[in-house]
Amino acid sequence: MAFVTALTVLLAATGSSATPFNRRATDGLNIRAVAAGKQYFGSATDNGELSNSAYLSGLSNTADFGQITPGNSMKWDSIEPSRGSFSYSGGDTIQQLAVKNGQKLRCHTLVWHSQLPNWVSNGGFDNATLISVMKNHITNEMTHYKGKCFHWDVVNEALNEDGTFRSSVFYNTIGPAFIPIAFATAASVDPDAKLYYNDYNTENAGSKSTGAQNIVKLIKQYGAKIDGVGFQSHFIVGSTPSQSAQVSNMNAFVSLGVEVAITELDIRTNTPATSSAVAQQAKDYAATIGACKAVAKCVGVTIWDYTDKYSWIPGVFSGQGSALPWDDNLNKKTDIYNAILNAWGSAPTGGATSSAASSATVAPPASTSAVRSTTTSAAPAATSSAAGPVVAKWGQCGGVNWNGGTVCESGSSCTKFNDYYSQCI
Ligand code: G3I
User: Which residues form the CBM1 domain (predicted)?
Assistant: First the structure.
């Protein structure tokens, strides 16, 4: 009876009809990524979608998503729509959601030729003035988000397909120096943020990848700091670069002294997707996750939203889509989801098998905690204590109704993800 009461309370608190017997809290895309030594598995999101409570629940499930990226609301047209007038409400909503959920925030993006207001692209500024405008934008936005963004996409998509510089107001007015100037400005404002160059079609060897490597060298030659390169990875089913091609390409960047991340992954196909396309798509997802897993300096993977419902693809590529691990109705696509899980490797101790995970719903516990907090850091010598059995790394160590151990084995700390789940990591 007491159990039934506790169950009722839990379901009421979560607002979910999900059974507590599903194993979602101990397994998921992010949990597997972290178990594989990565910093996160994450998703992009956008402000309009957050009013969909089922969507928001799925996005807030830190077992699947340990990181989020604002898809639009930190871009120039959102932040500084007119000169000197800054508007942070949309970006703040997503930043505050990340804090509430205990998720890392990749901030996107400071200098991009697209979603750039007319006052910049057609402003007719001379070299010195545009440099000043760009520096002012970077400084204002990064100051506002200082300490809140663990990554910043400082410059986005500066290259043509042949690896030459793309024509843009920045390149045409300032020349290639706009890139190192942007990075130097960013580093001066928030020295702790990891500063990224981000682009697409740079995921395997070729002219554009070489161009991106030259951008890394250019920034360093100017004496500026670049920490990472983001591979957007907007792939097509059946044309996704092989795992080995992605690994060797990542390593070419790593050898230049930067980390790498997969920043906007989706793998599109003609819709409706055929069963053979889905089978190939599962392999393509596995190749991409496997590549990041294989490269120690690949720090994590972000999908460009998690559900087809809010994917950018159908609006841009007519007749294509079905690119993400959740469908238009927010149902998990088990073939794709399990392909990602399994590509990361085995579940952490105490975690679910991929088939158990596949039966989990998207609805997570509602979190009331503001930030992830470490509650236990002692390294016990014993295998049990007054706090119960010592919990192995990756095991659960706390949460509402948790009756197991709360002390983590040596080398791990009990870290709170939400009121219902803490894990030894
Ligand atoms: O905000 C307006 C709204 O007021 C208007 O009613 C509506 C009508 O179409 O448009 C809204 O703006 C849209 C915006 O997304 C916000 O939803 C734009 O039309 C639409 O073009 C814009 O698309 C975004 C696209 O970047 C623009 O290039 C996508 O959501 C966003 O996912 C996409 O993300 C990019 C990355 O930043 C960089 N890499 C490629 C990736 C995919 O294109």
Answer: 389-425
End of a domain among 295, 330, 348? 348
pLDDT band at 65 (very low <50, low <70, confident <90, very high): very high
Q: Is 264 a catalytic residue?
A: yes
CB of 71 sitting under 6 A from ligand 1: yes
For residue range 369-392, what is the model confidence (pLDDT) as tens digits?
222 333 332 333 334 445 567 766
For residue 411, give its domain range: 377-424
286-312 pLDDT per residue, tens? 999 999 999 999 999 999 999 999 999
User: Which is catalytic among the residues 141, 259, 264, 409?
Assistant: 264
Residue 208 in domain? yes
- The CA distance from 97 to 206, in Å, is 38
Structural domain total, the chain: 2
Distance of CA 378 to the CA centre of its chain: 30
- H/E segment holding residue 152: strand 151-156
43 lines ligand 1 (CB under 6 A): no
Per-residue pLDDT tens digits for 7-18? 333 333 333 333
Place of tokens 């236990």: 376
Domain assignment of residue 2, yes or no: no
Q: What is the pTM of this model?
A: 0.81
Domain harbouring 283, CATH code: 3.20.20.80
| Cα 72 to averaged position of ligand 1 atoms, centre (Å) | 6
46, 72, 74: residue to mutate for ligand 1 pocket, most atoms within 8 A of CB = 72
Read off the DSSP letter of residue 405.
-
Is the CB of 114 within 6 Å of ligand 1?
yes
Distance 77 CA to ligand 1 centre (A): 11
Structure tokens that stand for 320 in this block: 């294509």
The rounded Cα 29 to chain-centroid distance in angstroms is 11
